[in-house]
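Title: Prediction job returns without error message
Component: structure pipeline
Severity: low
Priority: P3
Assignee: unassigned

Description:
Job completed but the reporter wants confirmation the result is attached to the right record. Sequence as submitted:
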Amino acid sequence: MKRTTASSSYCVHAGMLIENIKIWLVVKPLQFFYGRKRLDDKLDAMRNLPENSIGYDLAIMLDLHNLRLIPGFRNHDLNHLVLGYGMEWDDELCMQAYQVGNGYREWQCFVFLSSAIIVPTLWPMLWAHFQMGRASVSINELDFETCMMEQTVVVRERFKQFKTNSLKAGLAYAG
């Protein structure tokens, strides 16, 4: 019993560490250096797009997490929306595993995914999401600029992704 509690406590602390690394060493510096007026104007325009469109839903998702658009990471945020992954550290790691399985080979994906080394209890889940990515239609051709007006539900259907709204989906797929 104590072992489970210690393991859970470790996982919580490791998750907090990963989340802080993501926020303070990646997100905040990128927002400071790159998330300037031009992209703030773009985000404002997205908030005025029709409801249930990719652009509108993406703007709302970023607003809910107090985030802004960052050059080079717009497709990353789009992938969160289309794939249904949350923005907490464990969902972020699962999405990175999914993307690597799906053929995404960007350095930032591997860097963030490597932080999972400190959470071995999550490795089976990451493997399951990697396998889901391998089994899914490639999301690499999804482009931020060209799909802003499309309905979110239509884009999700076009890519025929597995339902990944929670970590339990990875376990269900792996099981």
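Comment from assignee: result matches the submitted record. The mean pLDDT is 79.
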